[in-house]
Amino acid sequence: MSGRLAVIGLGPGNAGQMTPEATEAVRTAREFFGYKPYLDRLDLADGQIRHASDNREELSRAAAALTRASHGIDVAVVSGGDPGVFAMAAAVCEAIEAGPPEWRDIELTIVPGITAMLAVAARIGAPLGHDFCAISLSDNLKPWELIERRLDAASKAGFVIALYNPISKARPWQLGRAFECLRANLPETTPVIFGRAAGRPDERIASVPLGDADPSSADMATCVIIGSAETRVIERGEDRSPLVYTPRFSTGPSR
Amino acid sequence: MSGRLAVIGLGPGNAGQMTPEATEAVRTAREFFGYKPYLDRLDLADGQIRHASDNREELSRAAAALTRASHGIDVAVVSGGDPGVFAMAAAVCEAIEAGPPEWRDIELTIVPGITAMLAVAARIGAPLGHDFCAISLSDNLKPWELIERRLDAASKAGFVIALYNPISKARPWQLGRAFECLRANLPETTPVIFGRAAGRPDERIASVPLGDADPSSADMATCVIIGSAETRVIERGEDRSPLVYTPRFSTGPSR
Q1: Engineered SS bond to A115: which of A85, A93, B14, B44, CB 3.0-4.6 Å?
Q2: Is there a contact between B93 and A129 if contact means CB atoms under 8 Å apart?
Q3: How far apart are CA B9 and CA B22, in angstroms?
Q4: What ipTM was estimated for this complex?
């Protein structure tokens, strides 16, 4: 007897940005697995059970959730943002591929959510208005050389770059090194957006030129967006913060 | 007297994937500007006014909306998916920068939405589970050479690639040429996902190997996701479609 597993994206963290589909998926699940701060966002009913875990235990969390689902329980795994972007959907797929055959029979549903870069971009203009990429800056799961190679390729080819997982206590120097790489390919004036906790009460969104970008402006809850050479800043009156956007058109290859 | 302009992401097209914030922004606006099929999704009240336009008139639509907002009207510009991803938010910013100074005083709000690649990815597994990029395949606003250069750079650097605007009557050959470029850098077995109308009644999601990818499988409503060399397919029983995912980890630089 197989149950169901829903991998649910809760969005950036305010109720207005969580989809009705996600709300309904939470309502109908019985047991919840996730990183504790995400579980804390849920307003669960009597009889709904939480299994909180730490944020670097994705694979064991996925396996625990699949085990419960294979026992016939309706299980939910929750992610902040979108579960398919550097989050639990890939971990669940990894666990299914490596796990017992019966896990492939579980009814798996993935519920998308507003991912951080979209929420941050919306608060400042349209920095992702042209071709862009998303890179996780964590070198826990890939070699740092590969990250540098991607930063180099993306900035040379004119992509706007959204950095997820920019910094943590265990990874203090990587963001600074990333800015150094990018300065080799992009003008010092390129806008860099530090978008922290977009849409939440403790939101902090700021844009600075790449030449002045300070890694200590970021924390674990920050998504950093680095413009391309074509990204522009529109100054507005005193009452309004500048808009940062990347035009839809591009006149030619960058360097 | 300045009104307000909300640029609203309606999501992929089913009500369950439109955020409460977007629903509320629609409820409170007075005049609506957008591509007709997006306006047709709205259930407007008496007194709410529609201004439909064609899908290649983004800049004039943005200017018309800003003009009305500058006259004190509460205006909404609607996009499918997310307005910041190859959609109206950048067009509105372009118009503001080029327009009269008073347009900078308009209260501008951008309401994010679930963008197509997230909705498509959720229906098939987690193809965007590792570093990825989004490229518009339209060469209306940038030279084709630049698109080829980005396809080459992204596939060589190991990014999964989501293609927006893959094909249209006026742009019939570009997607086939894109597949040719990608075959030069990626194995023939690399999964290619054709995700059409994700979450809508006429949804059609399929994964084929890059070697067999046929451009005629795509239309204007399709988002095409091309895996990296590390993207994997998990076969399941007869009742379940295969899962396609890109592992969170990467063992080393690709070619």
Answers
A1: A85
A2: yes
A3: 7
A4: 0.97
